[in-house]
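A reminder from the course coordinator: this example appears on the midterm review sheet, so study it carefully.

Given structure:
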């Protein structure tokens, strides 16, 4: 995976996830983010591994998968550009709840989860703001997973 340090508060302002966030908060987050590129097939993380980072997808697609006993990895959602990838870094025990693999070449902003948690502890307004934003991401993921599981159990021949 290639990476460079060129994330700015202005670049974050262009993304829907950061819409309306005060510039000082975006600047603090940009200071601990890097731009990364990953080829198709790159595995971002495995279910159960330590969750230490998250990504804002700028281009490409990432498939979220879940290990289903007797079936192996089942794709529960495919994330397009502008999606936030990863929220498990925010909550103890900081373990991934899903796996994630690039379904197409990806460019993204990658954030250090520990660094962001430290920023949130030092600035409670930033922490509250990010919790609300990630809460919305989690609700979307929960709904997508529920729909996909209902579909898979209605049509068990569709494993992927």
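Designed residues:
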């Amino acid at each position: 995976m290639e990476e460079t340090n060129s994330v700015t508060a202005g670049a974050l302002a262009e993304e829907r996830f950061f819409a309306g966030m005060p510039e000082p908060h975006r600047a603090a987050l940009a200071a601990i983010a890097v731009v990364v590129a990953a080829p198709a097939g790159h595995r971002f993380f495995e279910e159960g591994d330590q969750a230490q980072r998250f990504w804002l997808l700028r281009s490409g697609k990432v498939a979220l998968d879940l290990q289903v006993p007797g079936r192996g990895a089942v794709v529960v959602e495919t994330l397009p550009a502008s999606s936030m990838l990863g929220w498990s870094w925010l909550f103890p025990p900081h373990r991934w709840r899903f796996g994630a693999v690039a379904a197409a070449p990806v460019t993204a902003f990658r954030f250090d989860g520990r660094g962001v948690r430290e920023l949130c502890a030092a600035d409670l307004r930033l922490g509250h703001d990010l919790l609300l934003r990630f809460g919305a991401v989690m609700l979307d993921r929960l709904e997508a997973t529920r729909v996909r599981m209902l579909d898979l159990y209605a049509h068990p021949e569709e494993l992927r």
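The helical segments are 9-13, 23-30, 113-122, 124-154. The CA atoms of residues 3 and 36 lie 4 Å apart.
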